[in-house]
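Action item from last week, closing it out:
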Amino acid sequence: MYLQPEIFIYMQSNILKILILQVAFFVFINQKSAAQSYCTPIYSDGCGFDDGISSFTINGTTLSTNSGCSTGAFQFYSSNTASVYAGQSYNFSVNFINAINDEYVSIWIDADKDGLFDMSELVLQTNTPVTEPYNGNITIPANASGTLRMRIRVSFENIATDPCSEYIWGETEDYLLNVSCPYSQTFTQAHNGTATMYASSLITASNIISTGANITYNAGASIIIQPGFLAESGSIFLGKISGCPN
């Protein structure tokens, strides 16, 4: 149990309304199992015709290399982990078993550690086939923390829209990410929809919160609103001095 002051700011009809909640009490009970059981992806033909993953690197860490075609076209690589920060974007590179073949690539990160790769946890999907080396960029979910499972599916001829269901040709590899909360964060871009931002110490915000957006800032020490920050009419943002998720 801990005490958490909150400042709630709501923009409506160009009138700024501020409510300061004196104290809020929260009790968190973690009911998730430490070991999760993930689905095994299926391919009818798999990577026997060289439609698969040869290597994968993210943030300078190689998580698989010269891996070839795995038995059943699926392999979980648990010996290496890549260290990343929640809410940050990172470059990755994937090579295919056969450099000639064009492949579709999809990546999921199980941010809530529930043993499922939900549609909301899809962080990348190519809508056209790509060739190697395919260099892309993914953003780690802002609410992610701890050791997380990441899945990359490669499929020939079909977009891999599902992390578990059957495709004809391709291969899937799972990896581990060690996700930490950044010490501080600065936000200068506009945010739309719903988003949550975390930092272990300081958040500096100078972005535009568009109409209808719902943004939550969680910082361990302070949240600084700089000139240029604009919460448009009908937008909501919530600032919490609470730090990073457990």
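Closing note: Confidence is low (pLDDT under 50) at residues 1-34.
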